[in-house]
Every structure is written in structure tokens, then in C-alpha cells.
Amino acid sequence: MRLLSRRSAVVLFLVIIGLPIAVLTYTAITISSQSAVRQAENGAADSAQTSAVFIRQRFEDVAIQVDTYAQRSLEPAMQGGPGRYDMAGISGALSDLLRVQSGVATAFVTDPRGQLVAISPQRGDLVGKYLTGDDWYQGVRDQDSPYVSGLSSTAASQSLDSVAIATPVMGPPGTALTRYGYLVALFSLHQIQDFVDEFEASNHTAICLVDGAGFVLAQPGLTPGSVVSWPANDHLLAAALAGRPGTTENDGDGGDQLAAYAPVPGFRWAVVANVPRAVALRGAAQVRMTVLTIAAIVAGMLVLGLIVGWSLVHRAQQTASFQQRMESLTRLNDAARAVHAERGPRALQIIARRARELVFGDFTALGVWDQEQRRMDLVAHDASADLAGGDVDRLAALVIEARRPAVATSHGMLADLVGRDRQVDLLGLGPYVLVPVTAGERVLGCLLVCRREGSPGFHALNEGQVVQMSQHATAVLEKGRHDVEREAFMDRLSDTNAELERANRLKSQFLARMSHELRTPLSAIIGFSELLLEGSSGRLNRDQQGDVTEIASAGRVLLDVINDILDLSRIEAGRMRLEQEPIQLGSLLTDVASALRPLAHEKSLELRVAVVGGDPYVLADALRVRQIVTNLISNALKFTQEGGVTVRLLAMPRDVEVSVLDTGIGMPPAALEYIFDEFSQVESAGGGGLTGTGLGLSIAQRLVQLHGGTIGVVSEVGVGSRFWFRLPVATGAADWPQLAEVPAMEGAVR
């Protein structure tokens, strides 16, 4: 099952989880805001109603107290009627009223016609004045109960910081004169103002008390005595003054507010409670913050979950991709092992079958390009079990033979590849992928894989798998070509080696025959030269002796050259036989040095022999070892102009090393690489040209190797050279002490 992409997973997550959470958060905030508004409206209405009840109760209490004083304290002093009032009793009752009722600042008494009889505190200028024009008089004269006026001035007090509470002083029931006059108490609005201020401070709600005339009796921050009118077009205020409460939003000076209106029963007043929306929605704001905080936490957790989920999806995708690759690599590995276990057509048939199985195809065909015939030949094909048959063979040949070399991969429908205008039975095959089989820039063939119609097309991974199988086909085809080329090369090489061996054998035979043919007359020349020098045929004069001596010397040199050629030819022919026996090299080295010392004396050179660490036995051919040592010492004397030559015998635990050290011209490092080659020579530093045949060191090397030893050289230009060879110590020879390596120059000189 194909996993969702990470982008699709995120979108699905946001749709399934994120969107409902956002809707729920918005709904919760909206509902909480609406609930807070309703609560604020209800709270404002409750505040207005509570304040109205408090104000009504407060004024009723004062009115009851004033009425009680009127009936109990003033009625006895006023029962005589106008002109017969007990002024002392009236004054005392007024003073008691002011003392008992703290909210009353001024109290006075009038007769039934409104003429002021007494006032407290005392103001003689007002006594006798008629107050019939005051609002309280207009309100109380028509009723027998206390009356509370609105905000209006009175002749007794011009200040607008109080309201008048008037009550009639009535006579006892059944008397002819039942109304003796009126008691008026001016109740200060400071207490109401204090209540309003405290209510706002504690409840954050502004309470406004408005009388029937539209004057504000109290509101937050109002100074008693100030005249403030309520807007005349407020229909809710008019409804409240008429006894109908209401609630609405109101744009006040403080900004957008909620206002609740409540009537004050029995007074034709109204209370307005104003709640700022910020205060009203404070609870909603807290709920909103809580909801947003919870939403943020949930969103954070969801984002974290999204990240984790994203990572898990990514890891799952990587795991699935890795598993697919591992399965693909496993199948490819199995296919590679199966292919490389076979060769030729069998391997190509395995490639065709494994390519089909690897990409779950139904048909494969493998073609190889014939460069000479300029056509694509079918070499292998494979099909699923339900497609097997003769028709598959014909279809494979038809599809492959129509192909031409191409370096690009192609894919599509098989009908388009074959040609829809051709009447060919495609066996229900549809999608295909065609990859080239290449080696570098050369196109070797093509590999075709098809699936049935209705199957999904080949994706990039399938194409890569088919390409890898085509590379196996390349390896098989190239290996076959290389095998053919290698067999042809090996045949040519065998023929060449045979010719070389024959030529070398003929060369050796020629050299041996020619050397043998030359040695006989040359020996005769040397022999007759010696006889002439001995005077057997008569005495020779000095010039004749010099000439014969030169002839004999040249003959000996030529004889040495012929002997070297014969030795080399014997060695190459494998006919060199060694007469090995246990020998000690010390005496052999001394004999060779003694024989060559005249050559050293001729050049004023010192020739010495040093034996270091003993003289153990070696299994060697004394004659051939003498030949090796003679060659090395002769070369050292030849290339040394001053100083000397040292022949050193060094006994080691398993070998005996013979070194020839000289103080001659030395050799450059490049010459050391070929110094032991046949006919190789090193030009002397003195510019004297090349001397010798260049066979001596080559023969010495081969003779040492025939003895199972090693030979080498160390040289430095201008310092000298050291030629050395090592021969193994003879096994079974006489016991000799365990030897240790010591410096080369230690030991005695012989």
C-alpha cells in the first residue's frame, strides 16, 4: 500500500483535526462572549433594580420618620391651628428631627396655606413667607401621605443639593380641623452620592438617579448642587419613569456601554446602571483567554504531534523505500549470482527471466546488435506461464528484429512500439520499458520488458532495475567477446613463444658451434705464440717479442670472450652442470686475489682480503665460484683509479656473504637497474668509452642463482661500489660456532 505524502498528511491532519478545533474554539469564544453580554445585561439590570430599591427604601425610611415626627411631635404643638401654634414645641420638634435624622440639613413647618411658621436652623428672614410656589407644596397639598419632590430649589434653600420630603400634620380623626400644616425636611443628596460612588468603586457600575424632570440627582463624580440634565430623547428613561424597566447598549462618554433602566416605585424617579463593555466582557475576555490558552496548548500539542507524525510518516516512507530497495537489491543480487554462474546463451536467458521477475512483468525479450549484418538478433526471451507458447516466440522475434540501436530508454504502450497499423497479436500486453544494452558508447543490444494491459506503467525504480539487468547483459556479452579475443591472443602468443624458443635454441646452438670452431684455431695461435716466445724456433728480437706477446695477449682475451659466450649459451640451454662440494671460501678468495694482485700493482692499487666472523663451509662449485669472484675483482680493478679494492668474507647465521668493495668511479642509480643484464655496460667517467663484452656480471648472476644464492650491488657516483653475493651455508658440514653479524671491516687482512 502506498503511503500518503507528507504534504497530504499535513492537509489531512488540518482538515480532520485542526479545522474542528478551530471551529470549536471560535464557537466557544462566541458563546462565552454572548453569555458574558447577557450576564452583563442581567447584572446591570440587577444593579439598577437593587439601587432603585435601596433609594426607594432610603427615602421611604426618611419620609416615615418625618411623618412620624409630624404626627407625634408636631401635631400636639399645632393642634390649636394657625395663630395658636406652640412655637416652642414646634422648634423643639424640628431640632429633634435634625438631631435624629443625619441626612436632613434643614427642616421647617408651614401652615396649611404654605406660610412658613418655623425653620431650623433658625432664619428669621424666612418666617412668614409663603412657599406655595415650591414643588413640594404642589405635591403634598393634594395627598395625605408624605411627598418627595425632585431636584428643585425652595424659598427655604436655594441650593440644589437636596430634595424636599413634605408630609401633612394631621389632626386626630373626627376633629373638625384635620390638616394643621406641613412639615418639610430637606434631605441632603450627599448620602445618595456617596452610595453611587461606592457602588461604582466596588462593582464597576455607574449608577445614575434621575428625577421626573430629567435632572440627575446623583451619578459618579457629581458634586451635589450641580445641575445636570439627562438627554431628553432617551425613550428608555421615559419608559422607566413611567414604571417600565429596560436594557440597551449606550454610547456614553466612557465609550461603548451597557445601560439598564429601573423605575424607583412611588417616586417617579429612575435609576440608570451603566456598565462599560470592557468590564461587562471581562469575564468573556477571561474565558476567551482561557479558551485561547487551551486552544494554543492543544494546537501546540497538535503541532508537536504533527511534527512527530510527520517524522513518523517520513521515517515510514524511508523505511518502505529502504525495504523496497533492499528487496530490489536482494533480487538483483540473486539475479547477478545466477547470471555469473552461467556463461553465454544460458546466462542471457537467465537475465531475460530475472528482469521480468524483478519488475513483476509478463514478457521480456533480449536482442543483440549484429554489426556486420546491421540487424538486431533475438538471443533470449521469457514470458509468464499463461503467455508461454509459439505466439510468444513470434512476438519476441517481431519486436526485437524491428529495433535499431538506441542509447536512450523509452517506455509507453507496446501497440505504439510495434505500430498500431500492423496486424499483430500482442497477447494482451500493454505497458513496456525498453532500455539499451551498452558498453561505453557502443550499443550492444536492447532489453524489453512488458506488462499486461491494465497494469500500471513502469516507474523510475523499475526502469533503474531493468537498466541494472541490462548491465549484467553487457557484462555477459563483453565477457564472451573478451574470451574470444583472449583465446585468439593466447593462440598467437603460443605460436610466438614457440618461434622464440626455436630461435633461441638455434642461437644457442650457433653460438656453441661457432665458439667451439673458434676455440681450436685460437688455442693454436696462443700455443704457437708461447712457443715462439720460448725460442723453440729461434730467438726473437725485442720488436718481434713485443708483437708475439700482443698476439698471445689478444688471443687470451678473445678466448675469455668465447668462454663467456659458451658459458652463457650453456646456462640458457640448461646444460650448465655444477660440481658442488663443501668448500671454504677464505682460501679461494686469497688465491684469486693473489692471481690478480699484479693487475692492482700496475695501477698502484691495494688489493686485500678480509674474513669476518669465521669461514664456514658452503656447498658450491669451486671453479664457478672462482669465476664469479674473478669477474667481480677484475671489474673493481678496471674502474678504480686510486685507493684500493677489498674482498670481504662475512659469515652470517644461514649465509656466507662475499663482498667486493672498491673506491672507484661508482655508478648512477639508473645504471643499477640493468647492470646485470646481458651485454649491458656502464660508460667510464674518464671518457674512455665502453670496455668488455658486458657478459661478466650477467654470467656471475646466473651462476650465483644456480647455487641458490643472491647477488646485488650498492654504488654511489664518486664514492665507489660494493658488489656482493650470498651462498647458503652447507648443511651437514663440520660444526662451527654460532655466528653473529659484525661490521664489514672487522677481521684480519690476508
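(ticket continues) Second input and output from the same batch:
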Amino acid sequence: MSAQNIIFLNLFFYLLGFLILFGFKSYILSQFAGWLSLVINVLGVLFSLSLIMNVTSERGIEIPWINLGDTVVSFDILLNDQTTFMYFLVQIIAFFVQLFSTKYLAKDPAISRYYAYLNLFILSMLGVIIAGNLMQLYFFWELVGFCSYLLIGFWYEKSAPANASLKAFLINRIGDAGLLIGIFLVFYLFKTFNFMELRDRFAGVSTGVFHLNTFGSWSAGQLLNAAGILMFCGAVAKSAQFPLQVWLPDAMEGPTPASALIHAATMVAAGVFLLARVSPILSHDAGFVIAIVGSFTSILAAYSAIFQYDIKKVLAYSTISQLGFMIAGIGVGAVGASLFHLTTHAFFKAGLFLSAGAVIHHLHHQQDMRKMGNLQDEMEVVFYGYAICAASLAGIPLFSGFLSKDALLISAYAYAEAHHFSYYLIIPVLLLISSVMTAYYIMRQFVMVFLNRQGNPIEETYHDILSGLEGVKKSFHDLLTADDDAQGDEKIINFLQKLGVFEISVLAMSLASLWFVFSASPFTFSDVWFIKIFGQTESHAAWIPYTVLGVSLASMIASFFITQNEIRNFYVNSDTEKSDSWLRKIGLNHFYLDYFYFNYIRPVFTGKLNTTEPEPAASFKKGLPGVVHYADSTYIDGVTKILARGLMFISGISEKAERLLIDNFVNGVSEYARKSGHYGRKMQGGQIQFYLVLMIALVICILILKTFLF
């Protein structure tokens, strides 16, 4: 089967799943909605594996779609390593998220609608991945945003999810407007939307084969900078970067499994994928702006994660921070390292979200971490799965996050080194501080959610690891020393019966977060197969990973003791928030960005709709609509009234002129004609004598005229 047939068949199954699950809402279908969606997802995973084996080199597929005169609108598919790995990544994570959802949302009456939305989302995300041109990508990009809106507001009968979905939708429209302008600017410069042609034509610029367009006083280089930054606006919104990151924490109002898929592993990573697609045409200046925004966002979000109490909001800010890492990597030119971290982050962050979902489900939808704890024995499998994913996020050796995060840090350092440090050094410094903060907040969450409330961190960790190893050793020993095959089978069955869909999903994500999935060596990323495929900036700064590791471990130990004290203070004084320091309040409220937008930016567009102040103050307090209304009613309406009065005056003069001159003239002519006809009629009386006299008179007149005039 050809690659394009594989893709179209795969997309068709997801479209069919959406139509069935959304269109036929019955009790019987709702009981099997999850399993129907899982079957489609399994087929998708098989299709993705087939696609990986089918694609051995980069190529594009152009399928003519619409003919508009000389212009042909085509459906383009770009097949390369970026496409195939993301195509598989989205579907394998979606499978375990959907498996997890079968239990998490088992009692939800709208479960069919939930799975319908997931199928539409996967279809949309795959459309973004395979898109071979910018306009096609933009179409699916918007569809992905729409699916996010549907899933965040899945429980739309509650005000919080409904408001969060609207907030996410509107903020993403801001970034998407910039993206669309950037796409058209790229077309103006390169005369194509196709990714492969863009790359070739950009390469031709340096050799003089291709020349970019200019516009007025804007040079081609300036237009290219503008195009790169405008397209980056789309990534700023979709990947929740400063200053449009405020929608993602509120997006946690949606179902937790959907958050694991969309707002941790796939959709928010679409911004990184977009930048990776257009990275060949990104200018140096645009790359620097991207790197600064990414690193700055990373440290802002990491700081806020330190002070959150909601288990999902910690992970939300963590996601923003890690996306900042990836964005910064794209900016410094480390596309391979960014995509590698995107992959590892997709697995360990999905595992963390699914673990959080299992905890929330176990505690009857309690999300305040201060009211948790002591869950390591009650949820043993989830505990170990969470620990692996958390260690990967913290960048601990033996886990994938250590390899990918350090690849980005080394790339950022190499970028600054290549530019002789200067202000470029701020990028690796910010990322380094963010890494230390990451280790701090993930240990804080680990302690609050799972560990016992008292204990020494070293003893706790040693005891937990020892207990886990003893448990695994005992399980394997029982299986290997069974008296016969039947007894061995029974022990295997008993072991598997302890695993539910929660545990299986979390374990799958945690196993994918171990180092051996990506590299033979757990201590260096030079052996990572992913890096060998996508490339990596060479650097000899081997001291960076271990320096970061040492500081991060110290941060984790400090976090343990500080968190224990934080928990004690919570139980002693439940009103600790009232006495919090300003540093904690800033972090808890994410630097009051929401407050600033709501109180200073929102009034610009909405204002105070009900005000008793006189004009024009009242109009100006109604925001931009009030200003526009005031300008319209005062100036535009005033000019319109003056023009109307002038026209009325002219029309009055015209009416009098027409009545006195034209009408009188026309009436006079008609009256003259009437009277002439009247007298002429009298002359035609039929009397021969009158006719004879008239003829004699006319002859006499003619003779007189001839005599005197001629």
C-alpha cells in the first residue's frame, strides 16, 4: 500500500469514528464508545508503523484538488523523518489516553461525545503533521484549536470549563491572526506555500539563483524577519508562550485524560512542530527573538509552578516551561534537540497527567495537593510510574529527560559561545535556572501527593526504591519457581489482574521515559538515535549536564524539607494564603498577568458597560467600543448631518428653480401649443369662402414681400 493510501485510509477511519460517535447517540453505543474509538486508534498505530517502513527518504506528494483557471490548488503531503515520528507519537499516546479514559469517564453520560471529539482532534493533528504547505497546515491548525475548545469546554454546563474554553479560543485567535499574516508574507517573498520549495528557494537566495521580493523601503531581510516573527505568533498562542500563555492553566478544567493528550503531549507541541517545519527559512534575528521568548517563558512558568497547590496546574505551568525549552531550542538552531525533547516530554508529561488523573479519581476529584499524601501504598503502581516520569522531567540520569534537556542546554551554550557570549549568554542562563526550578517543583508535588508527611528524604527514597526492587524480585521469583506451568500461568494471571487501565496507561508512559528507549548510554546524548537522525550542534561543554544535575539534586533535597514545613504550616494554620509573602503571591497568581489582562486590557475592548457618568467620560469608560461609538456619534454623525443639511439646502434651491423656471417654461410651451391648436382648429371650419379669402390674402402678402424685399 502506498504512503498516501495509508494516510488517507487512516484519516478516513478517524473521520468515520467522529461521525458515528457524534451522530448516533444511543445508550448501547455509549457503552462501547471507548472500545470503538480504541479499535480505530489501534488501526492508526498500525498505519503509522506501516508509514515509517514505507518512507525511506524525504519526498512530497502533490494531489490536485481544485482548478481555478491557471492556478491549481493541491493537497500536499510532506513525508520525511519529522512527519513519520510525529505521526506515530500522536497516535501511540492517544491510544493510552483513550484507554485511560474508558475508566476515568465510564460514568459520564456524554462519553460518546468525548470520544467523538478525540477522534476529530487526532484527525486534525495528523492533518497538521502531514501538511506539505503552509495554507493546508493552517486549515488543520485551526481545526486543532477548535477541537481544543470543544474538549476544554466538554463539561459546558459548568461555568468554569465554559469560560476556560472561550478564553483559550479567543487567545489562540490572536496568535493565529499573526500566523496567517506571516504565511501570506512568506508567499509574497517566495511565491510558494510548499515547504520543500520554500527550503530550496531560501537556499537559492545565498547563491543568487532566487531573489526575494521587497516592499517599499522594507528590504527582503527585514520582510523575512517580520515573516518569521509573525509565524512565531501562532506558536506563541498554541504553545502557550509569553505573553499569551495564560489560557493553558485554565484549560485544565477539561477532562484530565484530554489534558494529557492535547495540553501536554500533542496540540501545544504543534507550535514547536510548526517552527521546526519553517526553521530552514527563519532568519538569525527571528531566531534570537524566538529563543529569548522561549527561555523567558520557561523561567516564568517554572517559578509559578513552584507555588501552585492544584495538582493539574503544577503540570500545566510545567508544560508551559518545557515548551519554552523547546521553543528556545528552535531559536538557537537546535531543531533536532527540540524535537527530541518534544518526544521525551510527550511521554513523561502524559504519564504525569495520567497519574494525576488517577489520583484525582481515587480521591473523588480532590485536586488540592495539601490534602493528599500517603498514597504510595494505596496506589503503588501509579506511584512508581509517577516517580519515573517525575525523574525524567527533573533531568535525572537513567531517564530520557536527562538526555533531551541536556541536549538543549548544551545547544543553547554552544549558540552563546558561537556568538562570543555577550547578551546571548542570557539564553542558557535562563534555561539553567528553569531546570533547577523544575527539579524543585516536581519534588514538591511528589512529596505532597504521594509520600508520607514525615521522614528523611534519603531514607524515604532508599526505602521506596528498596521496597520496589524487592517487590519486583519477589514477583519474578514466584513466576520462575512455580511448580508447574499451570501454577506459573495462575501467578501471571493474578499479577495482571492487579493492573487496571489506569496502571497500564501510566506504566506505558513511564517505560517510554527510560533512557534505553532512545540511547544505549544513559549518561550522554551523543548515542541517541533520535539525535543521529535529526542532527545536533556539536559542543564540548560536557560539564553542563553534571553541573545541572548537581544543582538540581540540591534543589530537590531543599524542596523536600521546605515542602514538609509547608504542609505542617497548612495544617497548623489553614489561612496561610493570607499571610503569604509577595514572592509567593506573585508565583501563585503567575505574575498577575490574568489580573492585568482582565483589568487593563479587557476594558480596552469591553469597558464598563453600565456607567452613569456624563458624555464623553461615559463613552470613554466603555472601552474601545465606547470610543468608537462616541467618535461615530460626535464626529462622523456630525459630518453626516452637515452634509445632509447642505444637500437639503441645495435640493430646496433646485426645487424652486425647477418650479419657477423649468416648470413655467414647459407649461408655457404646452399652453402656447394648446392655444395654437385651438386657433388652428377654428381656421379649419370647412367653409370654402373662408379658404378662398385666405388664399387671396396669402397671395397678396407674397406679392408685397417680393416687391419690397426682393
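Agent notes: The CA atoms of residues 5 and 11 lie 10 Å apart. The chain has a mean pLDDT of 84. Closing as not reproducible unless the customer responds.
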